[in-house]
Amino acid sequence: MKLAMTIMVRDEADIIAAMLDHHEAQGVDTFxxxxxxxxxxxxxxxxxxxxxxxxxxxxDPVHRKQQAPVVTQMARDAYTRYGADWVINADADEFFLPxxxxxxxxxxxxxxxxxxxxFLVPVxxxxxxxxxxxxxxxxxxxxxxxxxxxxxxxxxxxxxxxDAVHIGSPDIDVIQGNHFVSxxxxxxxxxxxxxxxxxxxxxxxxxxxxxxxxxxxxxxxNPELTPSPNHHGMRDYARLKAGALLPYYFMRHPTPEExxxxxxxxxxxxxxxxxxxxxxxxxxADFDKATRKAxxxxxxxxxxxxxxxxxxIASGFEDRLEAAAEREADxxxxxxxxxxxxxxxxxxxxxxxxxxxxxxxxxx
Length: 364
What we know:
InterPro entries: Nucleotide-diphossugar_trans
Order of helices and strands: EHEHEHEEHEEEHEEHHHHEHH
Number of domains: 2
Helix content: 40-55%
Protein name: Glycosyl transferase family 2
Distance between the termini: 102 Å
GO molecular function, one term: transferase activity
Number of helices: 11
Strand content: 5-15%
Keywords: Transferase
Radius of gyration: 30 Å
């Protein structure tokens, strides 16, 4: 069984080496990587891996959010050039793992029937404290299972969309974001062979600011594309251009009090699997005390504003429900009155008809 992985990457020098090392240790046989015009040192890292024969490195410097056709070609090549039985299309900040940590990816895929054709793999965000710079393996160690209401208060629209993996195919199509493929799923692995993705989307302020900017510009240059419904980038891009993104970055991370409560209610559970196995390519660097204090205060004010707005919306909704109920009761009363009048009218008509029939009988 041959397992291949495709990656399209741009400016991920803080994590790409660790990501490749992780999946190599997990038994991925072939890596096809396309560098999308990186300028932060990612290209040089990938060139070293290519020189060692560890990856098939390609270059595509165009910045028009052309991920779908590029990944599709890599996925097809995984089969036609390398004979891949299974193909994983991943992002640089995604770490695929068996849920059963005693197994490797390769061992799991060996047991998954190819008759499934494709299946979805759930993606779990890892979160923790914010930082000015750094990969964050030792800091982002909490599985984010917050409720939808809690996510909204943190400025996050939803949990990430699952990723699709598929069998090797010469005519596979991979849809924007790696979330869907053209091979319809015919089954999913049983619990003992389950796979998940640990995702580190907001590793540091430096990384996230750059990610928002390059993603926003790419979408602007290709208006034919529409971001995923769970995509936060375009809203954050507007905030970046307005000079208001940093407090939203802070707001996205749970406070110490929230981490403590999350450990109790199961919405923020510690998971050190990456921290124990990997060395962070870029060490963490914190904000200065004044900046951290100011931004935390700002983000708390934003959260408070969201709470108040939610209360106003809820209150308005309740008022509308009450008004609707009153209108419904009024309509029901009017309907009952009309039905009563209609019944009386029918009764009078019956009486009149009976009287006429009686008169006719008497005449005969």
